[in-house]
Each structure stands twice: as structure tokens, then as C-alpha cells.
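sorry for the late reply, my laptop died twice this morning and i had to redo everyting from scratch. anyway the thing you sent over, i finally got around to it. pasting the sequence first so we're on the same page, its 272 residues, then the predicted structure underneath. double check i copied it right bc i was rushing
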Amino acid sequence: MPHALTRAQIAQFVADGYVRVDNAFAPTLAAEARRILWRDSGCDPYRPASWTRPVVRLGHYSDGPFVAAADTPVLRDAFDQLVGPGRWLPCRAMGSFPVRFPSPQDPGDSGWHIDVSFGLEAPDFLDWRANVLSRGRALLMLFLFSDVGSDDAPPRIRVGSHRAIARRLAPAGEAGLTLRELAADGFRETIHCPETAATGPDGTVYLCHPFLVHAAQAHRGSRPRFLAQPPLLPRIPLDPFGPGPLWPVEQAIAESLAGDAMPHRRPSPYGI
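ok and here's the structure:
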């Protein structure tokens, strides 16, 4: 059977920091999830007058449709290809949902950032941390639970920015840097990166490198946007410097620190 990702898609992930997986989960699951989210939002899908805020943040969801959306054969195979079989934990919750509504107001949360992954016990999220080993996160994932067009507040992505962030994190070693430290200069080292947007029909998933710089934006469309951003958690810590096979998520880090010259490690079965 063909794999979920082609070699060209894996090469894109290593170079650009993300890959789009079409038809990753069924639109019927997306519709079931939206019914739950509408119920909890306090808004009426048929009464735009009730959409009074640019963003409504809902809590973590582990209901059936959400777990099923992250546990499809296509996604499981893609996780194996990018992170390695047996090296990731099944996604049992979708995390929080920032539901974005059409609005002329600034949502107030559209700054560039990466999703940091440890030190989460700190009360201020700006003190949460990331390190060059991507401790606590194997992938950043964007699950589209509604159709997302260019006007529907698609997440903005700085293509290839994960490489600059790997180089920024490397000198800090295992301790890593806080989000406050990383964002102090507005992620200036990634300003040169081309920008794209995570658009697509419901059921689309973007699998992203943990160091990918991304940002929200205002909603200029006409229908609310439902999108989740859960992590794929590692069962086995990533190690771009150890002796084992070099999986694509690790390969991107290793190449970034070696000036695109592969280190002396054998690639994984899915390496490029």
C-alpha cells in the first residue's frame, strides 16, 4: 500500500517545515465536532448578530469526533513517516479551540510565535520553554474543522523558519529559551522567510515542524473558522544528535545546524 506522504512531501517537510495532508479525516467528523463547538460557544450559527467577539476560546476536547479525527490511518502513517513508528503518542485530545468570527476588531493575538513545549508549570506562558531537542513536542498540527479560505483567518506560516529557530535554540542547550526570550526581537531571524497560509477544506491537516514560526490573523470572511492546534507528543524523545536513524523531524534540525550537510547518521527509511 502507498504511504500517506510521498518522498517529495517528506522533502518539503524537511525544507519548508510543514506538509499539507488532504482528506486526513472525514468531513462528517468535522461536522460533528462543529456541533459541539457551536453548543459551547454561546453563539448561534444562524444568527450572526450573536457573533459579538473576534475570537472565542473553548477548552480542551476529548469527545469522540475529536479523538477520531486525529486517529485515522492516513495520519497514523504520516506520523510514522515523520517521527518514527512507536516514537509518538496517540492524540487523545484536541487542545483548546480559538474559534474565529468575522470581525473588524483586532483579535489581539496575531503575533508571530512558536508553540513552546515544556516548563508549562510556570504561571506566565511567556516563561514556557523550547529547546533544540524539541523536548515535549514531536509535531505541531493544524486541524481544519471548517473550510478555511484566504479570508477566513488561516494561520500564517513563515516557510522554512524552523531552520532559523533551530540555530537560535542550539546555543542554549537542553535548558532552551523561554517564549519571552525567543519573541524579544519579534523573531527577526525569520523575517526573510516567505509567508503562506494554512487554507483548505474541512478534514485538511497541516503537519508542522515544532519550530515553525506562525501567527493568527483577523477574520475577513463571512463564516466562523474552526481550527485546532494540538501537539503530537513524543513517546521517545527526539534526538537529532544521537546514533539511531535520523527521522525527518530530527533531520530538519540536524541539517539546520550542519549548514545543510547531513551529519554522520544513517537516514530513516523515510529520509531523503
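Residues 27-41 form the longest helix (15 residues).
thats about all i looked at so far, will dig more tmrw
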